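Review box. Two proteins, two foldings.
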Amino acid sequence: MNRSIILAAGQGKRMKTDLPKVMCEVLGIPMLRWVITACEQSGLDDICVVTGFEHEQIESYLSGKYPTVFQSQRLGTGHAVMQAEDFLKKDPDGNVLILCGDAPFIDKETITEALKLHTDENNSVTVITAVLENPAGYGRIIRSENGIAGNVEQKDCTAEQLKIREVNSGAYWFKVRDLLEVLFEIKPDNAQAEYYLPDCIGLLIEKGKRADAFISENNSVVLGANDRKGLLALNDIARKTVIEKHLENGVEFICTDGIIIEPSVEIECGAAVLPGTILKGSTKISKGAVIGPNSLISDTFVGENTVLNSVQAYQSKIGSGCKIGPFVHIRPSSEILDGVHLGNFVEIKNSVVGKGSSVSHLTYVGDSDVGKNVNFGCGVVTVNYDGTKKSRTVIKDNAFIGCNTNLVAPVTIGEAAYTAAGSTITKNVPDGALAIERSTQVNRENYAKRKLGRHIKKGENIK
């Protein structure tokens, strides 16, 4: 059986955060989640996470899906793996992949292809490596005729070894039994007085075991972050990589300024993403849709040929052929059906808006079921909360809601019914009826003249 150990005990001290370092985000996703996802995609669902600083936050994030072990002292990568001894002993005849939780760009192809090399060559250890133009700062891989002879940290390299461009990513496939044989033999004989996992390579070779390295085509597997500057660099790389993938799939970008797309987002060929747009979570954008500028769409489906201009939408579904924005807020659990128009400064919350309906501007629709071809005038409010409970409003097909109407829920507006501008509707309106709710207008002669006379005399503007 193949399993994985993820080293996630690092502090976020240099990140200037109270979070564990692995919980710092790349494209809105914790680095730890990137690594776990790569394991899951590779078929590795038996994962142990080694925690340290603020371990409760990691355990809460994992929600019990994967076991954790606690490294009370940060004494190196080898010491971290020692904490997972019981996890390793559960299946001593299998293989284990050891990964760094703050190296988010490990990928399925690298994991599976490295495992194939590991098993085909019957290696005790297979180091995942990359060949870099500038290998400064990384441990160098020393090749031999039958695999590798070891790993040398940069500070210990000779002048000749410094020329080597193949570097250790910090990720390894081990035979579990062989790893357990040498893991507790490594010594903290170094300036940091730490137990280094790469020392296991030399110990295995001394015992006549085979060691080799798999060169990943993804040079980014070696990248991690120790501070905010490094984290920003990871975000830039991830952002560009995701956009390049969508470009290859036929998505249109006229300019990528301010565009952030999480890896989980799906965008069909022929859609366009404009500057300043952020796409998050399980969002899916259909062909012909135009998203942006300056839109934030999270966990939302967007239908074909829909335009979202300066829109924020969360956990909702938007149909095809809709025209929405600018400055529209679609809150969770809303469904906007085909051909709907939502104009400027409209907010929709936990509501269904039927086909062809129009909510032009300055309107709030909350906890409502709106039929097809309904027209909302300016300034309409569905009054859904009485301070104790929330109630729903029902507006049937072809209704016309006049400007500045308050619909006090629970209330139903009948099919093809009409509400007069300025009305506060508290009772159901029958099909085809006109509802008017206004007090009698009273004009008091000369009141304004007396009230505002002194302003008029001074020649001031009456406001």
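Next protein.
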Amino acid sequence: MTESQHRSVTKLTDPKALRALAHPIRLALVGQLRQHGQLTATQAGELLGESSASCSFHLRQLAKYGLVEEAGGGQGRERPWRATALFTSWPAVADDPKVEAAVGLLRGVIMDHYVQELARWYEAMADEPDEWQRAVQFGDTSLYVTAAELTDLNRRVREVVDVYLDRHANPELRPPDARLVSYLHIAYPVIGPGERGEPGEPES
């Protein structure tokens, strides 16, 4: 990543592009490139436990929609690739049914990815240093807010998190004990029992 890519965003509005990203391997490839900066198909395959041929194919598919690009140098599967941005966005509300369906598919793949990554951490947590076990956050808070207030809250949280984004582009800014952390941003209206702030019926 270059310094100009501080909160750089690839905006997807084409349903074909959205469906292209809605694949576990492709999603993981974009994530690895954002983490490592540049990788060849061979290197990516070693990290993901996939063949270099598979990664090469998926990288080319991602490149069609501007999600990754060749970094220059190398040949064949030894060509380095890089992500074109640090973040990806898509319409929160889509008028086109095809876009809406593609966004739904992508969200489902991303949710599965979150669950798998979180499960991986909790499987390994007992062997992690105490300071990291204590630092991890796992919980939720129920709030009564308007849509405008939630939008503002999301903005303020993002501003706090963005303070650390330069460390992607500049490894020298990272403290010696810094690790890559996934900070999930999830906030949604409660649907079902308790959605009006009342506890659900206890199970008998």
